[in-house]
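Our collaborator T.R. sent over the components below with a one-line note: 'Predict the complex.' Nothing else. No constraints on interfaces, no templates requested, no preferences about which chain binds where. So this is a plain run: every listed entity goes in together, and whatever single assembly comes back becomes the starting point for the next discussion.
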Amino acid sequence: MTTPMIRPALLGLMLALTAGPALAETAKIGFNAPLTGFAAADGNSARIGAELAVEQANADGGINGQQIELVVYDDQASPKSAVPIANKLIEKDQVVVGVSGSYSGATRAASGVFQAAGVPYIAAYAVHPDITRSGDYVFRTSFVGEVQGRAGAKLIGETLGKKRVVVITLKNDFGQSLAAGFKEKAADYGIEVVAEYEYGIKDRQFGAIVAKVKDDNPDAIYASGYFFTAAPLVSQLRSGGVTVPVIGQEGYDSQKFIEIAQDNAEGIIITTSLDRDSDAAPTRTFIEAFEGKAGFKADMVAASAHTATNVAIEAMRAAGTTDRAAIRDAIAGLTLEASTGTISFNELGEVQKNVQVQVVQDGDWHRHSVISDAELLAPPAE
Amino acid sequence: MLYLELLIQGLVQGGIYTLIALGLTLVYGLLRILHVAHAALFTLGGYLGVILTNATGSLALAMVLTMLVTGVVGMGVYRVAYQPILDKPPYVALIASIALFIASEEIYRLVFGPYGLSYDAPPLQGVIDLFGSGMYLKQAELLVLAGTGAALIGLHLLSTRTRIGIAWRATVTDPEMAASFGIRTQRVRYLNFFIGSALAAAAGVMVALLNNLVEPTMGSVPSYKALAIIVLGGIGSIRGTLIASLALGVIESFGTIYLGSLLDRDAIAFAFLILVLMWRPQGLLGRT
Amino acid sequence: MGYEITLATSMCISVVFALSLNLITGFCGQISLGHAAFFGVGAYTAALSSQAGLAFPLDLLAAAAAAAVFGFIVGLSSLRVRHDFLAITTMGFGFLFLGVVRQQDWLGGEMGISAIPGSGLSKLGYLGFVAAVAVAVALFSAYLKRSWLGFSFAAIADDEDTARVVALDVARYKLLAFVLGTAIAGIAGGLYAHHVRFISPDSFGFVESIAVLSMVIVGGIGSVPGVVFAALVLTALPLWFQVIEDYKLLLYSALLFIMMQLCEDGIGGLMRRLMQGRRRTT
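Returned assembly:
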């Protein structure tokens, strides 16, 4: 009677229940990222970065002889989807470590699950401060939003010497935490925040903001966003006649930013983690290998995911066992030279490293400077 | 000066909304369907515009081709999605339309990739100093204003000076009477979808020019905003749609600057909508 | 079993949520495109009140009350506008809710609210509680449908003007439908907050409103068993489709589309027709 609907439903149910770990011979690392939906671009880059790390490790013989498998699920950058995925990774796939290649909302939701289950979880680039506060099993390999914002204040006030700044903020946790950090330290570097404007992640038309900024006439603009919002914003600012320096952050850090904004991208400065002109071997090999694998140039998201996955791999190697607690301790005590710098964690699981400042020159990202003020860049410890 | 600039920016945004909402109001006026999938044609126009311009080097040619192709696709959408369900309750068409829209976003992502496409050499990026005032308008923004005006004039001429246009107005007003006069309802419907979709495609091309970026999800905001606009303007009223679109563009422009700390862009738009509807439930220019 | 338990809990929460919309849209015929906002009001109320010390499950009552108040206000708009206009007005309220929440720091703003206290029950215990709520709501809906109130709702859904002519206080019943439906949605939201323990504005947007409306329509507008079944399946579907991950949204929307073309009265309608078919042959 209701068989037409029941049979496929039962089949699906059976598939779901039996989709358990097939091979116990591989060491599994879980990975959640937005592969569909509005954040698919970043999720895709992150996934390739993580896969690269696993491939490189496997080519080197794996971990203690065992091959590594990356188990990837699409969370659509949604907290609602991230929770069941986290549960699935932990229970069905029996992952030893989890890595988040996703945005803050999803990562925050998943981190609670990983912490409760006692499985280490490493956030690659999500900035929400509460992520590491989930507990001692959660780590983050990139800057907390506030720290990067503070670096931005030093960059603009001291390095560039600009004092009257307009802040344009992307209205989400990423943008707001950056703005908060910036405003916190602005006065220390003699910066006067002339005005602040906000925009939503779906906005691409910034005509009103451009008009108002022209009226404000600042010396510099501190604008947060992702490449798909920042590129139109920067283009529209330049066409509108705003010629002052625009300083962004790692959200811009992608070749796509330059492709979209074209000539308008010249001279744009960002704070980020990936130094294209770096001499460090891990960074150089990552940049080349990534372009070979993906077919397009590396971006910050890919580099961060690569780093986070490598932290997981190195910790698994150091621990020498699949005991989650031992691996957690290994992560906590780790010092690793990765594509995004030297990684080591404080008690909260936050990383302390230098901020790379990159600038667009001749259509490519290049090194501008480095900010290494340890006190300024100190991550939260609780 | 600032206010004038904000106004002009609002009108540019309003122009884009007009081009999108016109197609939607045409469909609703004729079939009483909330054609959410209309935004999918907007996105298609954006993609085709970029691809064809990059391939042929000519924006004009690309624009014409894009409008034609998307118009035809729009007719196909009517034939495949709506015609079979015209006699069913209205929510059926709404859900089918939403499903079609979600599917389209996914298809664009799968076919063109999640990163979006850009022009190799974006046309119309030149800037014009308005009357030497220091207010800059991109050529692309001028195109939006001109295009909107042209579309409205074109529609007006079509509906008052041509046979098919008059047949169309008659069908909208009273389908049975029109049919009894020998007007081919099918033909009117196809024309309706063709024109509406072509206009949406034009809007897509123009937005691509303004941002130099087309993404699979670029239709998501227009999908629901355009609904708000046609309701605001009053169902089936082209003039109402125009006024509502422009008004919304301007309100968003000023609102994001001055009310930005209270509400975000969408909330401002919808707050405006709700206020108007509570005062005039039939929309600004709708008939009771 | 933890994974299955949390999945089952999500499914039961969806059932409560879908049934709440079924009351407004299915029983009373008022199309709502902003139902996720009431879910959100419930979630935020439960989160904040439990963080302030209100014990579970009392904070669920607070959640229901808050959602009902908001629902009453939106319900008032249904007295002004109808059908498509109402659909869009409700959509507008959904955006308005989000717009306000995003800007208020005490509501967590963009950061959302973290560290929401748990229910105090074990995972299995919580599942039991949620399942019990789901069953209770389903029974209530079924009872309501057969009651005088349900009959009045159906009359209004069918033809509002005629209902008014036969002296039905249409306004009062519409408001009642909204208040009941949104209160239950608020409870669902509270259950969600304690389940996921982190909420942010992203989870209560237009997409979620569409998703729950799809459950009601696929289930068959008004059909309680149909909506329950649809809610269960559609919640679990994205996870089953993990196998064909890249295409899951496409498949989901294709499914929805085909369903609208072929059997628009949903699973409930399908079952009804099959049952009638059987009766005729006996």
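Summary for T.R.: Chain B touches chain A at residues 1-2, 5-6, 8-10, 12-13, 16, 106, 109, 114-116, 118, 122, 125, 127, 134, 136, 138, 141, 207, 210-213, 215-218, 220-221, 252-254, 256-257, 260-261, 264-266 (CB under 8 Å).
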